[in-house]
Write a structure and sequence with these properties.
The protein is of the alpha/beta class. The protein has helices at 7-18, 56-66, 78-90, 105-113, 133-141, 162-174, 228-241, 247-258, 260-283, 309-320, 344-361, and strands at 23-24, 73-76, 96-101, 117-122, 144-150, 178-182, 204-209, 222-225, 288-289, 298-303, 322-323, 325-326, 335-339. Bound molecules: pyridoxal-5'-phosphate.
């Protein structure tokens, strides 16, 4: 095991929360609801009860909503933890593994921490950010036991093409490997959401949480879904890390899961109101281009001028009380990522300020 600093995580905690700005375009999540929105009561603070190897009611709610059996579900503190548990359950030191590239840094760091030999599966702009199936096949041929993908793709925002996913799954199955799909943004497809990856075959694993679409990141309520034998192993990895979920978290998560449709409606309203502002803003700029994401809260903007994610971010914070998510954390200093889950007035003003910073740097 080897734990380096996850630079993006450190940046996000400090810049988004501990030293915030007024116009924060960097967040990829829907703004949080208040406890009353999901009917939280004082009794939910009780720590009594049994959630050892997963709270039964919570597992049932998750299983029913995403169309799987309860024994395929492991509730865990965020999709981040579920990702780690699955990777920890699958990989031994020195095993080969693979990940999409560019990638959300914490996902790659899991593989590094487990001292895996890492192969990359490109998601190229000219391929509409879909994963390169041939590269995935090669990674499995070279012994990758696990491939990590995201759907919607962070940072590109696109929905993972089902035909490609199935082709990747066939290659994985041939080599006895697994494909973990982090689906933390997927529910933003609303009623167009397809069956989750974990329903497509035992080689697939899905992770998700209440963080992004539902706005409940501080609750730390995520889950993993996979074949029961692997989920059993993942619970044994959890025994090393935190033993149990917090019982109050599970109770509040149960409230949230009973109100998901209400939280979805709220998120959808925000996306419908806010995304056109980003579309109009991008259309007004000669120094930025993108592949407009059909769904979700994140937009991945390419900078066509001299500006880089470093200079944009520095100037925005120093002069404009604003910020974006810098592309260099994804290995792409010619990109910035912005979100549209914040209040409309803040987004509007934030975009104006981003425009001014780009004008100055261009
Ligand atoms: C792809 C991806 N997975 C996981 C997370 C973290 O989610 P959680 O709060 O569920 O751990 C993020 C947050 O940015 C993310 O982009």
């Amino acid at each position: 095991m080897r734990f380096e600093t996850i630079k993006y995580m450190e940046w996000a905690k400090i810049h988004q929360v501990l030293q915030p700005v007024t116009y924060d375009l960097s967040n990829s999540a829907m703004a949080p609801p208040v406890p009353a929105d999901i009917g939280v009561t004082a009794e939910d603070a009780s720590w009594e009860g049994a959630n050892h190897y997963g709270h039964p009611e919570l597992k049932d709610l998750i299983a029913r909503r995403w169309g799987v059996k309860p024994e395929m579900v492991i509730p865990a503190g965020g999709s981040s933890l579920a990702n780690f548990l699955f990777a920890g359950a699958l990989l031994q030191t020195g095993d080969a593994a693979a990940i999409e590239q560019p990638y959300y840094e914490p996902l790659g760091r899991i593989l590094e921490a487990l001292e895996a030999k890492v192969h990359f599966v490109p998601r190229r702009r000219e391929d509409a950010f879909q994963p390169d199936v041939e590269a995935a096949r090669k990674a499995f041929e070279k012994g990758a036991k696990l491939l990590i993908l995201t759907d919607l793709y962070n940072p590109g925002g696109v929905h993972l093409d089902r035909e490609r996913l199935k082709a990747i799954g066939e290659a994985a199955a041939k080599h006895g490997a697994k494909v973990l799909v982090d689906e933390v943004y997927l529910d933003a497809l609303w009623e167009a959401r397809p069956p989750i990856a974990a329903t497509l075959g035992p080689q697939f694993l899905s992770t998700n949480s209440l963080t992004k679409v539902y706005g409940l990141g501080n609750l730390r309520a995520g889950w993993g879904i996979g074949d029961p034998a692997l989920v059993h192993r993942a619970y044994r990895v959890y025994d090393y890390l935190s033993v149990l979920n917090s019982m109050p978290t599970d109770r509040v998560a149960i409230r949230a899961h009973k109100n998901l449709d209400r939280l979805i409606a709220r998120a959808r309203e925000r996306r419908d109101a806010n995304f056109p502002l980003i579309e109009r803003w991008v259309a007004s700029r000669k120094d930025v281009d993108w592949l407009p994401p059909k769904y979700g809260f994140i937009s991945w903007l390419r900078l066509k001028s001299k500006a880089t994610s470093h200079t944009v971010q520095d100037l925005l914070r120093k002069k404009y009380d604003a910020q974006v998510s810098p592309g260099h954390f994804f290995g792409c200093p010619d990109h910035v990522r912005i979100g549209c889950g914040l209040a409309k007035e803040k987004l509007e003003e934030g975009l104006k300020r981003l425009g001014k910073a780009l004008d100055e740097l261009g």
